[in-house]
Amino acid sequence: MRSAVGAFLIAGLALAAAPAAAQEIKVGLSLPENVVGFDFVNGMYKTFKEEVEANSEMTVDLVFGGALGAPNERLNQMRRGVIQMTDAADGNYATIHGDIQILNMPFLFPDEPTAWAVFDGPFGQKLAEELRQKTGIRVLGWWESGGFKHFSANKPITKPEDMAGLKMRVLGPLATIPVEAMGASAAPVSFGELYTALRTGVVDGQDNSVSTFNLVKLYEVQSHLALTGHTYAFGPLGINDAFFSGLPEDKQKVILDAAAKAIDFNRMKSREVEGAAIQFAKEKGVEIVELDENGREAFRTVMQPPAIEWLRGNVDTPGMIEEAISAVDAVQ
User: Fold this and answer.
1) Confidence class of residue 22 from pLDDT cuts 50, 70 and 90?
2) What homologous superfamily is domain 2-331 in, according to CATH?
C-alpha cells in the first residue's frame, strides 16, 4: 500500500512539475506553400509563426493548399474555434459582416499608403471592433491582398467608353453595377473557370490584381491590362476571439506583436511583388495601359456613384460610407 501511495504521489509531483501543454494556433491557408508571386500572403503567416514561436511556447501550424476547405468554410471553422486563423479575404468576410464592403467602394483609395492609414486608424479600428462583436473574430491587423484590381481585355481600355459591349467577369453586385454603368455586361464566372472562359470567349475581360492575373496565366489569353486601380483588395488578419481572450496577457502581447510584424512584411512584400508582376506581364507580351489622374477620374465619375447607391441600401450601417470617405480625406 505504501509503495502504491508513494508511486501515486511521485506521479502527481511529476505532473505538477511538467510544463503546461503549449497552445497550438492552427491556420488554414488557400495556396500551396511555395507558390511563386504570393509570398505576401504565405510569407506573412510564416512571419507570424516565426515570431510567435520565437517568443513563446505556443506553436503555429500552417496548413497550406486549401487542405482545410474552401475560404468560406475555413472562415466558419475559425468562427467556431475548429481552427484559430485563416487567410479569408474581404469578399469572404462580406458574407458575415456586410459593412466591410464599404472599403471595396471603387476609387475610395488613391494609393496604398492612404489605404493603410485608414485601416490602421480610427475607422479601421471601429470596423474591427464591430466585426469582433458580430462574428467572434478579432482583427489583429489588415493585410494587402496584392493591392489594387485592374481591368484586362483583348483591346486597350483607356476610358469608360472602351468598356461598352464587353462581357466582363466580375463577382458580386458591388463590382457588377459599376461595370454595367460603363456599358459592359457582367458574368459571374468562377475563378477556376476564368482562364477557359477568357480563352473561349465566354467573357472578354476581367478584373484582378496583377499578381492574380499572372498566377493563372491570364497573359496567355488577354493582350491588354489597364492599370485602373479601381478597387483595393485586402484581408483582415483574423483570429478566433474566444481563443485569444482566453490567453494570458503575455501571450496575447506575443500574438499582437507577431501580427504587427506580419502585416509590415505583407505590405512591403506586396508592393515588391506587384512591381515585379507588372514587369513579368510585359515580358509575356501584355500591353500595360497606364492612366493619369484625369483618366482615373473619368472612371471614378462613372463607377463610384452607382456603387455608393447600392451600398446605401445593402450595408448594415449606411452612415459608415461617409465615415470612410472622410477617413480617406483626413489622411491625405
Assistant:
1) low
2) Bacterial extracellular solute-binding protein, family 7 (3.40.190.170)
